């Protein structure tokens, strides 16, 4: 019987402690199998990454009125994100201060007050305890408000941190990206559609898949309007994509002239590794009509998000470690978030925003608006599920990243840094 080295390495990795696997990660290579397959790493990822970072939670458009809320579940955590009576966005742990009961059980809704269904302790949408029946005379309601979760809004996007002391660099991140986002008027948009897709793969595989276009030949709908040249340098462009690259160069020169004439920031800012709140942002042209993510590149929504003099603004792309990416065009925005459900299951939520006054059937057709990304997401779900099957095989061994996968390497390096900091302690 022949024993292959890959089989031996795979078996050894399955028995190694998470700290040892983190310490021996080889730069430029994919992670060892347990990072993607083990329950121990799933729990570690929640504790070290999702509970200690700033994560994207929702669009403000999902909370248009006071009392509107969503709930977000990350591992054992459940969070209520709600708009209060002063129209501020707040976040609280979804845990009653009486005996710990989960309070709100729906994914979204609207409340006057937040009422626990068990013993009817009642909280205001600002988290204060308003009513608790049958308490002693010296009971101090002010000591039993809902436990707050750190929450920040940036140009219509809602971020939260479960950490007692969240990463201190969020203010700098916000100041860097807000000038890019603000022109799109997201705080006054509305949700046209939201789709939840459960991918049968680890959350890191979903994020890695998004960070490269090496596989973009598998996205024919997207490739019609999106230049599939992400992370390719001029010298790396394959011969078969040379015409596309030349078309991109022409569109890019025209787009930069437009961006500058309108005072829209467009230069790439890439700080994916060196900061806790790693991000990348850049405004780029789109192919064909250059207006939107549609089969012909034309705007999907007649009513633009803001008072832009032209719809030909390409797209503004923002990527945030660890769980989100965004595309903003003149006519709509598409928001993507990733939430780990289990070692081999991940929720990918896609939200389309349009102008608050845009009317379906008049200003836009929903299938045209969503079609490119619906197809792309379904294709990506297949790729991620196949990747999960592959890393689960005893024959799997970490492979070498292509130069065009540099942002995958950046994501994995950022992730390993977060785990290392957590495992080493204060």
TrEMBL record:
Top-level lineage group: Bacteria
All residue ranges annotated as the Rieske domain in the record: 55-160
Record Gene3D superfamilies: Naphthalene 1,2-dioxygenase Alpha Subunit, Chain A, domain 1, Rieske [2Fe-2S] iron-sulphur domain
Keywords: 2Fe-2S, Dioxygenase, Iron, Iron-sulfur, Metal-binding, Oxidoreductase
Keyword Iron-sulfur recorded: yes
Cofactors demanded by this protein: Fe cation
Molecular function terms, GO-annotated: dioxygenase activity
CDD domains in the record: RHO_alpha_C_GbcA-like, Rieske_RO_Alpha_N
InterPro entries in alphabetical order: Rieske_2Fe-2S, Rieske_2Fe-2S_sf, Ring_hydroxy_dOase_asu_C_dom, Rng_hydr_dOase-A
Keyword check for Zinc: no
Protein name listed in UniProt: Aromatic ring-hydroxylating dioxygenase subunit alpha
Organism of this sequence: Streptomyces endophyticus
Lineage: Bacteria, Bacillati, Actinomycetota, Actinomycetes, Kitasatosporales
């Amino acid at each position: 019987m022949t024993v292959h080295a890959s089989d031996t390495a795979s078996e050894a990795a399955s028995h190694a402690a998470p700290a040892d696997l983190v310490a021996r990660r080889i730069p430029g290579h994919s992670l060892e199998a347990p990072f993607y397959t083990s329950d121990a790493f799933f729990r570690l990822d929640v504790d070290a990454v999702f509970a200690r970072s700033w994560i994207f939670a929702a669009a403000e458009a999902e909370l248009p009125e006071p009392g509107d809320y969503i709930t977000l579940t990350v591992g054992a955590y459940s969070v209520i994100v709600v708009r209060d009576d002063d129209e501020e966005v707040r976040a609280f742990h979804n845990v009653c201060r009486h005996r710990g009961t989960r309070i709100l059980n729906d994914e979204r809704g609207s409340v006057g007050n937040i009422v626990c269904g068990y013993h009817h302790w009642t909280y205001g949408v600002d988290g204060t305890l308003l009513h608790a029946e049958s308490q002693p005379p010296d009971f101090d309601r002010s000591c039993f408000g809902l436990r707050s979760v750190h929450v920040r809004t940036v140009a219509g996007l809602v971020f939260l941190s479960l950490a007692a002391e969240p990463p201190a660099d969020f203010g700098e991140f916000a100041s860097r990206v807000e000038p890019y986002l603000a022109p799109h008027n997201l705080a006054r948009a509305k949700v046209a559609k939201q789709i939840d897709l459960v991918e049968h793969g680890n959350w890191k595989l979903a994020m890695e898949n998004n960070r490269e276009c090496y596989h973009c030949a598998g996205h024919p709908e997207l490739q019609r309007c999106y230049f599939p040249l992400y992370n390719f340098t001029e010298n790396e462009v394959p011969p078969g994509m040379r015409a596309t690259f030349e078309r991109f160069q022409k569109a890019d020169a025209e787009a930069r002239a437009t961006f500058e004439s309108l005072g829209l920031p467009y230069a790439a800012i890439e700080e994916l590794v060196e900061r806790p709140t790693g991000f990348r942002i850049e405004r780029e042209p789109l192919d064909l009509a250059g207006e939107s993510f549609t089969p012909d590149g034309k705007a999907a929504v007649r009513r633009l998000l803001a008072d832009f003099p032209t719809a030909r603004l390409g797209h503004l792309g923002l990527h945030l470690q660890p769980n989100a990416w965004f595309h903003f065009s003149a006519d709509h925005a598409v928001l993507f978030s990733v939430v780990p459900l289990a070692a081999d299951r991940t929720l990918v939520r896609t939200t389309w925003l349009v102008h608050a006054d845009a009317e379906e059937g008049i200003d836009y057709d929903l299938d045209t608006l969503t079609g490119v990304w619906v197809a792309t997401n379904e294709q990506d779900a297949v790729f991620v599920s196949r990747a999960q099957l592959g890393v689960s095989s005893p024959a799997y061994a970490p492979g070498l990243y292509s130069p065009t996968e540099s942002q995958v390497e950046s994501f994995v390096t950022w992730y390993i840094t977060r785990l290392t900091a957590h495992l080493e302690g204060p």
